[in-house]
Automatic annotation (TrEMBL):
<dbReference type="InterPro" id="IPR001851">
    <property type="entry name" value="ABC_transp_permease"/>
</dbReference>
<feature type="transmembrane region" description="Helical">
    <location>
        <begin position="29"/>
        <end position="49"/>
    </location>
</feature>
<dbReference type="Pfam" id="PF02653">
    <property type="entry name" value="BPD_transp_2"/>
</dbReference>
<keyword id="KW-0997">Cell inner membrane</keyword>
<keyword id="KW-0812">Transmembrane</keyword>
<keyword id="KW-0813">Transport</keyword>
<feature type="transmembrane region" description="Helical">
    <location>
        <begin position="61"/>
        <end position="79"/>
    </location>
</feature>
<feature type="transmembrane region" description="Helical">
    <location>
        <begin position="111"/>
        <end position="133"/>
    </location>
</feature>
<comment type="function">
    <text>Part of the ABC transporter complex LsrABCD involved in autoinducer 2 (AI-2) import. Probably responsible for the translocation of the substrate across the membrane.</text>
</comment>
<dbReference type="GO" id="GO:0005886">
    <property type="term" value="C:plasma membrane"/>
</dbReference>
<feature type="transmembrane region" description="Helical">
    <location>
        <begin position="181"/>
        <end position="203"/>
    </location>
</feature>
<comment type="subunit">
    <text>The complex is composed of two ATP-binding proteins (LsrA), two transmembrane proteins (LsrC and LsrD) and a solute-binding protein (LsrB).</text>
</comment>
<feature type="transmembrane region" description="Helical">
    <location>
        <begin position="232"/>
        <end position="251"/>
    </location>
</feature>
<keyword id="KW-1003">Cell membrane</keyword>
<feature type="transmembrane region" description="Helical">
    <location>
        <begin position="86"/>
        <end position="105"/>
    </location>
</feature>
<keyword id="KW-0472">Membrane</keyword>
<feature type="transmembrane region" description="Helical">
    <location>
        <begin position="140"/>
        <end position="161"/>
    </location>
</feature>
Length: 348
């Protein structure tokens, strides 16, 4: 064999190097701290209260996280584009009460049709937000804060003092949060499917990857030919549709829906996304991380309740987690920028 043929032979990294690279990739995952916190929390709580991980306890944990998981997935799409949607709780409330109204007006309507109506209703409300933001060029924080109150006011006017209870809905619809498949509640499996579909969309399709580019640098994204306005509008529409889906599932999960349904939920949604590793400044994060963040927040509440800790401390811990997530993300961003500047200086 000649010297040339030896130099042309492909170089294969040693197995030890491959293992170190794989381990390094795992350790760099933004979701890793959240997963570790969740594991530690569950382990400690189960040690102090063995009933916490009973069959019913696990089912309750999953059910409590389901609605927030779906909302956090939709919010992630919006935050990645450097926006935010504070109206998701009001959208959920409108759709949940609308679901109760539909069942009262048409009790024989197929359940799948009710899901379709709720998702479409939510998508329309999301489109209202998206159009106001992309066309009027007003910051999302201002627009969605306004629509939060507008949608809530519409729900108050529509519902008044009326509430729809479990007896007003078909039994099969209510059973979605009771029935299980392989031990998992049906509505939780719906949430898992949503997370999987959106995760594949974000990482495996051009429009999904465009959202990251927009969040990283909107002006650069425009220069590269990315339709920024259309992509941001799409993110708000999908976010609204998922809030609509969450509203329908809320009507199945809980015993009553009314004018106050979903109040204050938007803050928990943003918290779940941020704690799950979604950068509040846009451009990075995953829907899987947001879903895990939602599971962590609801597990914290359940764990502290099981340990009979005062509700104030539950809220304080969530606040500490949000601050920690933002600070860690900011430090990581500064370090990455510093490394990039050093690398550029060396190349020069």
């Amino acid at each position: 064999m000649s010297l040339d043929s030896k130099s042309a032979a492909p170089a294969h990294p040693a197995p030890g190097h491959q293992r170190r690279s794989a381990l390094g990739s795992v350790l760099k995952l933004r979701e890793l701290p959240v997963i570790l916190a969740l594991v530690i929390l569950v382990t400690v709580t189960a040690a102090l209260n063995p009933l916490f991980l009973s069959e019913q306890g696990i089912k309750d944990l999953l059910l409590n996280a389901t609605i927030l998981m779906i909302l956090a997935v939709g919010q992630t799409l919006v935050i990645i584009t450097r926006n935010i949607d504070l109206s998701v709780g009001s959208i959920l409330g409108l759709v949940a009460f609308g679901t109760g109204s539909v069942f009262v007006a048409a009790p024989n309507l197929p359940i799948i049709a009710v899901f379709g109506i709720g998702i479409l209703f939510g998508a329309v409300l999301g489109a209202v937000n998206g159009l106001l933001i992309t066309v009027a060029k007003v910051p999302a924080l201002v627009i969605t804060l306004g629509t939060l109150y507008i949608f809530r006011g519409i729900n108050n006017a529509w519902a008044g003092g009326t509430q729809y209870f479990a007896g007003d809905r078909p039994e099969a619809f209510g059973n979605l949060s009771v029935d299980t498949i392989l031990g998992f509640p049906v509505i939780t499996l719906i949430a898992v499917v949503v997370v999987a579909i959106v995760a594949v969309y974000m990482l495996g399709t051009r429009p999904g990857r465009d959202l990251y580019a927009i969040g990283s640098d909107p002006e650069a994204a425009r220069l590269f030919g990315i339709p920024v306005t259309r992509r941001v509008l799409m993110a708000f529409v999908v976010n609204g549709a998922l809030a609509g889906l969450a509203g329908v599932l809320y009507a199945s999960r809980f015993n009553s829906v009314g004018a106050t349904t979903g109040s204050g939920l938007e803050l928990d949604v943003v918290a779940a996304a941020v704690v799950g590793g979604v950068a509040i400044f846009g451009g990075s994060g995953t829907v899987v991380g947001a879903a895990i963040g939602a599971l962590l927040l609801t597990t914290i509440t359940s764990a502290l309740t099981a340990l009979r800790v005062d509700k104030f401390w539950q809220q304080a811990i969530v606040g500490i987690l949000i601050l920690a997530a933002v600070v860690i993300d900011r430090i990581a961003g500064v370090r990455a920028a510093r490394k990039l500047r050093i690398a550029e200086a060396r190349n020069v």
